[in-house]
């Protein structure tokens, strides 16, 4: 069962309240077949803990890794994963679609 948006945002608030660095990733665009719809969220803390889902599999691992950089430098990033991208197979988006994910630090 996937976490609800309320659970994800509540977890972000708890982590931030405990002094941890936090980022939130949001699916902002999809094309073709995509595992999660626009608006799906993944919250990540500075230790690599996360809750929610933006895609699944290795894509989420890549988003978590980018989130660590976002937490460290505060610079938001837009990530794109898709079958047309030669790295898509490496990160596991082989469903034929593409997704764009916006990752920002929670301040």
Class computed from helices, strands and strand pairing: alpha+beta
Q: What proportion of the residues is helical, as a percent range?
A: 25-40%
Number of individual domains: 1
Number of helices: 3
Ranges where pLDDT stays below 50 over 5 or more residues in a row are: none
Helix/strand order: HEEEHEHE
Give structural notes.
The longest helix has 17 residues, at about 55-75. Helix content is about 30%, strand content about 30%. The chain contains three helices and five strands. Strand 2 (about 40-45) and strand 3 form a beta hairpin. The chain has about 110 residues and is of the alpha+beta class. The mean pLDDT is about 85. It has helices at about 5-15, 55-75, 90; strands spanning about 20-30, 40-45, 50, 75-80, 100-105. It has a five-stranded antiparallel β-sheet, sandwiched between helices. The protein has one domain (about 5-105).
Highlighted features:
107 residues; alpha+beta; five-stranded antiparallel sheet; 3 helices; 5 strands
